[in-house]
Write a structure and sequence with these properties.
Helices cover 33% and strands 25% of the residues. It has 390 residues and is α/β, with parallel strands linked by helices. The protein folds into 2 domains: 2-130, NAD(P)-binding Rossmann-like Domain (Rossmann fold); 133-382, Dihydrodipicolinate Reductase, domain 2. A 9-stranded mixed β-sheet has the order 16-15-14-13-7-12-11-8-17. β11 (239-246) and β12 form a beta hairpin. The longest helix is centred in the last third of the chain and has 20 residues, at 358-377. The two termini are 32 Å apart. 46% of the residues are buried.
Length: 390
């Protein structure tokens, strides 16, 4: 195995998720050519960065991402920082010849995302965005069934992504922990944080979204800022509802909110087609629900058996599961990052880039921008997505 030195920027939630993937992938995907080495962690707070390094096994600590990018002993830059920093870091890393992995959403807006795509493609460096829900085995199985034609012509796609994490009106905004509530750092609220996941999965399963109309709302309009201590306007969206037209003629409904009491990470999708339907719920991730239509005229006596099938996606013939445990046992959230990393490393080895790369994530960014533009104007908005159906 070839050592691959990782430079992780950011020691928060995503820093932990990515670091776990780097540690696990050689053990559970032993045939890979590249072996990640936790070379350096970078964060603004030296004490916290050192504690993170000691916990996860990083060899060195940096407090300036520019020094990290310049280091000759770092091969990969992984960006797990707030959205406002993604473009500058990614572009610098690409120009330095580093492989670049980036948390979602790719950027603050389409213009930044396009600059990032231009940088990685000009440098010819491997790149990927961590839309990890594609690598949940049940979602990957849904993709497989769609590609096999088991759903047939699609008619409807519906998605929800609901949480209740920020409902407390006394919760402050800004700072290292609550930057997602500040537009200058996050770019948007649930549109970039939650809806972007739903959009990426939808276009992976059902092809390009070509037009949207949307409405957003901010329920708590003022919060105390963690850094200034002042009461300041809240500039991000707390909820969004979207209607979408897909290039294949189907219609979609999407809802994302941080104000759904009792919902912690309720990420669902349903696709209805002429020949079948699929449904998935991240809060019950080991199952994929599948309905397959059978014409009773051609299969006498079988129509009374028609119904939804609840597939426990844990057998070795299911996506990724031959890498983990025995059939009947389940894997969780953290495994989706390991699966994604394995696909990325295998893609580099075989010369077939893993998806979603920066260019694919740019198409999701276009849809997010169109959603915000539609919400502001009250009109249907074309997305400009150029992605062919996959």
């Amino acid at each position: 195995m070839v050592p691959l030195n990782i430079g992780m920027i950011g020691y928060g939630f995503m820093g932990r998720a990515h670091s776990n993937a780097y540690r696990q992938v050689p053990t559970f995907f032993p045939g890979l050519r590249y072996r990640p080495v936790l070379k350096a962690i970078c964060g603004r707070d030296a004490e916290r960065a050192r504690a993170f390094a000691d916990l996860w096994g990083y060899e060195t600590v940096e407090t300036d991402w520019r020094r990290m990018v310049e280091r000759p002993d770092v091969d990969v830059i992984d960006i797990g920082t707030p959205n406002s920093t993604h473009a500058e870091i990614a572009i610098a890393a690409a120009r330095a010849g580093k492989w670049v992995l980036c948390e979602k959403p790719l950027a603050m807006n389409r213009a930044e995302a396009e600059a990032m795509v231009e940088a990685v493609e000009a440098a010819g460096v491997p790149n990927m965005v961590w839309f990890n829900y594609r690598r949940v085995p049940a979602v990957s199985l849904a993709h497989q069934l769609v590609r096999e034609g088991r759903v047939g012509r699609p008619y409807h796609y519906r998605a929800t992504y609901l949480q209740d994490w920020t409902m407390n009106a006394e919760l402050p905004q800004g700072g290292q922990t609550l930057w997602r509530l500040e537009a200058a750092v996050a770019g948007s609220g649930v549109v970039g944080d939650l809806l972007s996941h739903s959009i990426d999965t939808a276009m992976w399963l059902n092809g390009p979204i070509v037009a949207v109309t949307a409405v957003t709302e901010t329920f708590v309009r003022q919060r105390r800022h963690q850094q200034t201590g002042e009461i300041e306007p809240v500039t991000v969206d707390d909820t969004v509802m979207m209607l979408a037209r897909f290039a294949n003629g189907s219609l979609g409904t999407f809802e994302s909110s941080r104000y759904a009491r009792g919902r912690k990470n309720f990420n669902t999708l349903e696709l209805n087609g002429a020949d079948g339907s699929l449904r998935f719920d991240l809060e019950d991730p080991q199952y994929l629900e599948f309905f397959e239509y059978r014409d009773p005229s051609g299969r006498k006596g079988e129509d009374h058996l028609a119904g939804w099938r609840r597939i426990h996606v844990s057998a070795h013939e299911h996506p990724y599961m031959n890498r983990w445990w025995v059939p009947g046992t389940t894997i969780g959230y953290e495994h989706s990052f390991t699966n994604a990393l394995a696909d990325f490393l295998e893609g580099v080895e075989k010369g077939k880039p893993a998806q979603p790369d920066f260019r694919t994530a740019l198409e999701t960014q276009k849809v997010c921008d169109a959603v915000l533009a539609s919400a502001a104007s009250g009109r249907w908005q074309e997305t400009g997505v150029e992605l062919p159906e996959r």
